[in-house]
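Researcher: Please generate the 3D structure of the following complex. Treat every line as part of one assembly.
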Amino acid sequence: MPIEIPDVVIDRLPVYARALAALDRNGREVVSSQELGAQLGVTPAQIRKDLSYFGRFGKQGRGYNVKRLLEELHQILGLDREWTMVLVGVGQLGRAIIAYGGFAPQGFRILGAFDADSSVVGEQIDHLRVQHVDELRSVLRATHVDIGIVATPAPVAQAVIDALVGAGVKAILNYAPIAAHVPRDVHVKDIDPVLALQSMTYYLKGELPAGSK
Amino acid sequence: MPIEIPDVVIDRLPVYARALAALDRNGREVVSSQELGAQLGVTPAQIRKDLSYFGRFGKQGRGYNVKRLLEELHQILGLDREWTMVLVGVGQLGRAIIAYGGFAPQGFRILGAFDADSSVVGEQIDHLRVQHVDELRSVLRATHVDIGIVATPAPVAQAVIDALVGAGVKAILNYAPIAAHVPRDVHVKDIDPVLALQSMTYYLKGELPAGSK
DNA sequence: GTATGTGAACCACTTCACAGCA
DNA sequence: TGCTGTGAAGTGGTTCACATAC
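Model: Done. Output below.
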């Protein structure tokens, strides 16, 4: 029984994987935790400790084989297969998410798009035809979907999340500005640039205006 | 000399503020840490302790005055004024960011948009005319800008960040999939939905397919 | 010589639990 | 009585430092 692995560790693994993929593209064959850490702004010990939860991937005196470690991380994270998603909320934000080219190359595929506004339903956006949100349940019953993306206005977001969870979806990527309520076995990650800005301003407050020396 | 306030605390304050704003819109006058915590999935003690770094805003036996606490948080976070931003990278993502309606109501204003692609320069997007990235420095010298938004492809993101930092910008909202290198007095928040997805898959890996009961 | 893997020490944040006040 | 504010205790994650292996 492996001991419990901290969530923060899991959150860092994709960052390591991303850096290793870049090194690999550059033809790099080996990295030390030292060098990887410098590149990522993480201590070498952090990296070694994180990896040690999952195995012994390095060679003393040498470092880590880039390709090998990248494959291991993909396996650990489940990135060695494709994941399916549905998007709910086809406003400006939803359209941008559909158009976003960053998901597919990483194996995340949007299978369906849903909206409550019947003037949007039926519209073709990229490769998707927008369906009415009432059909969400039956679509989820018919098709295997791993992840729900929520890009609705705040007031309806919780209801949408309830519907997704009710249909068995265990992971939510939440763009709506609410604190989602989900059962403990459902995973939620929030994407909220406004919150990110609003915490940075705390530190800016004390500063001199930008540009002044 | 106030003792050092943990960054995690600062990150939570905007979340509290958002919830308080919602309560206020609903006409709610008072909340207890208990209730606010239940709403946000945070322990009441957490909330009280976080707030205690900044003052004593509650009344024993009653709770917190919603309006009052919201104002205090705005003040603490510096949200009682407007913040100016520039966007670099006017691709699909950059356009979506410009079109995004969530910044302005919170006091975050995009003053300029920049791109290296001369076929994009001059284009009018929303209220902005795209400028060449070479003009970034002179614009930043002429205009006070608090925050830089980076929405470029990964390979040029660090150079753009260097330019922003070189011009005195102390906060970066980074949408590019890189680990930014900045001096210690510059603040960076990353927005990366792919990383969010890639850590959730770790937990999904073990699960049964969605929808199976 | 060099860099990993890891128990132990350390540090930071969270939670407890209760005194104090409305 | 009810809920805040807060030292003290507890917990969990990070860093250290060194034995180990290449």
